[in-house]
Amino acid sequence: MTPKVIDAHIHVTKFSEMKTEALEYMMTNLFFKENWRKLELMPKFLIDIMVEENVEKAVLINYVAPSVIGFTESVNEFVSNYAKEYPDMLIPFGGIDVKRHTREDIKNILEELYSRYEVKGIKLHPVHQLFYVNQYVDDYGSSKLEQLKVLYEFCEDRGIPVTVHTGTSMFPGARIRYGNPIYLDDVAVDFPRLKIIMAHGGRPIWMSTAFYLLRRHRSNMFLDISGIPPQRLLEYFPRLTEIAHKIIFGSDWPSPGVKGMRKNAELIMQLPIDNEIKDSILYRNFRQLL
């Protein structure tokens, strides 16, 4: 029987807003190179792919990173409108530029994201947005970002998950030091009811840190395996069965090197682990989380 699949991490956004170097890097994926305009402008194009590949739902990851990637806060209206026609299949995640706004601005923008644009989650990409996810603590002195605390409190109160990029990035201008997942430890401690989705598991240099954090924060931290080659998942997480109930499938499609949502799911199905665990990763864990 073909397994059910929910893809918790695909990139469908305003590609036309991307900086030239970033777009050129994305085009190393030949599917993307040939189809990015259709993917941006025609939601039905994505839906047809999902139906063909038997992907039940997909999270459309959007974030704001004008200086590194080019994305502005217009991506929030974009993803809201994009998902509106297919609410049973497309789940919009939005973003915010926490460094550019005051505390009060942040509250108003988040309220707009939640009420007007009806985003179901927030994406933070510290490697592209150039901040530490715990930069709200006093240790940062004059560089402290109280705005992050406002964001976490807002999402915690409303049960909105926050997906956080961890690990490396090949995009020009990315700053890898911001991707160490250890900084999420403060966030998980200070906001114990916040649903934190750790994207990419610190790939490829902080995987052991990611594993430790997932075991330490048993109730509010989850692992999105997008960007991790599925065939290497057990190499990176040899004790995967201990955290299997916290792992959610994501493909990172159509990023460079990713052949497809279904293709990555099929590689998960080939792993030497129990079918019950495979089903949890591909489908059930995300349904329970969201």
List the helices and strands and how they pair.
Layout: E1 6-10, H1 20-26, H2 30-41, H3 43-52, E2 57-60, H4 74-84, E3 90-94, H5 103-115, E4 121-124, H6 126-129, H7 146-158, E5 162-165, H8 184-190, E6 196-199, H9 207-216, E7 221-224, H10 233-236, E8 247-248, H11 261-269, H12 275-289
Parallel strand pairs: 1-2, 2-3, 3-4, 4-5, 5-6, 6-7, 7-8
Helix pairs in contact: 5-7
Describe the structure.
By secondary structure, the protein is an alpha/beta fold. 40% of the residues lie in helices and 11% in strands. It contains 12 helices and 8 strands. It has helices at 20-26, 30-41, 43-52, 74-84, 103-115, 126-129, 146-158, 184-190, 207-216, 233-236, 261-269, 275-289; strands at 6-10, 57-60, 90-94, 121-124, 162-165, 196-199, 221-224, 247-248. The chain has an 8-stranded parallel β-sheet. Helix 8 (184-190) links the parallel strand 5 (162-165) and strand 6 (196-199).
Keywords for this entry:
Amidohydro-rel, 290 residues, Amidohydrolase, single chain, TIM Barrel, globular, alpha/beta, eight-stranded parallel beta sheet, 8 strands
Provide a concise account of the structure shown.
The protein has 290 residues and is of the alpha/beta class. It has a single domain, classed as TIM Barrel (Alpha-Beta Barrel), CATH 3.20.20.140. The protein is 40% helix and 11% strand.
